[in-house]
Amino acid sequence: MDRLRDRVALVLGGGSGMGAAVCRRFAAEGAVVYVADIDADAGRLVVEGIEASGGRAHAVIVDATSPEDLDAVLSHISNDHGVLHVLHSQVGMPGAAGVTVSDEEFERAVEVNVKSAFFPAQKALPLLIKARGKGAITLVASTAALVGSPFSPLYSLTKGAVVSYARSLALAVAADGVRVNVICPGPIDTPMLPRFFGRDPGANIDDLKDAFVAAIPMQRPGTPEEIAGAAAFLASDDAGFVTGVALPVDGGQIAK
């Protein structure tokens, strides 16, 4: 598999979980991957693993909500390659549970879940356009963006905004040869999954998680590698006529 041979990819939130799996998959498909994460050590470890497998990667420290950090990493990529083929933003957080949240909790959820989609895409566009029809943006929302979430309406609000933004941006930049799509994961087996069920005091995380997973038609959570496979498809020429799509990767959860 070398669908991304010699292409340049920037993965925000690439230091752990699904983002790390996306970095490894992009590199295995031949891309030069910039592993961007706010945690320098986490990004470095992902790069070391990629290089040990014969891939090419660079670790960069980036706060995806900081326009200054984004400008710096994109300037670095421009100086090194003059072009960007793939932007993937994996940054996100569960947000506060329940219908009553503080102003601070609201602002933080919007900052992390919405700004980390909006500003990276905006700022990367000039380099993506230089890819001459090979530019692709993949953002990450959630199945909670497509159906109601009893756990956190705020999370659904912010992730729903990502889906609407991606669809609108896809229309705005289609003539420039840049595609924009969204992956909507269901429950994925990463360290973040228990956080969705542990926001209420006294909650039995294991019981809540088991009940939630039991309601998935495929009877299991997904894996980070399955999200990475979807991201690699959307970034590649195999998805060359796919744009403006919100793709559930959820074991059949949305089909019910």
| Radius of gyration from CA coordinates | 17 Å
Unreliable stretches (pLDDT < 50, length at least 5) are none
Strand content of the residues, in percent? Answer: 15-25%
Structural class: alpha/beta
Number of helices: 8
- The helix-strand sequence is EHEHEHEHEHEHHHE
Largest sheet: 7 strands, parallel
- How would you write the strand order of the largest sheet? 3-2-1-4-5-6-7
Fraction of helical residues: 40-55%
- How does the overall form come out from the CA principal axes? globular
Task: Report the span from N to C terminus.
Answer: 33 Å
Fill in the keyword field for this structure:
seven-stranded parallel sheet, single chain, 45% helix, 8 helices, alpha/beta, 256 residues
What would you note in describing this structure?
45% of the residues lie in helices and 15% in strands. It has 256 residues and is α/β, with parallel strands linked by helices. It has a 7-stranded parallel β-sheet, sandwiched between helices. The longest helix has 27 residues. The two termini are 33 Å apart.
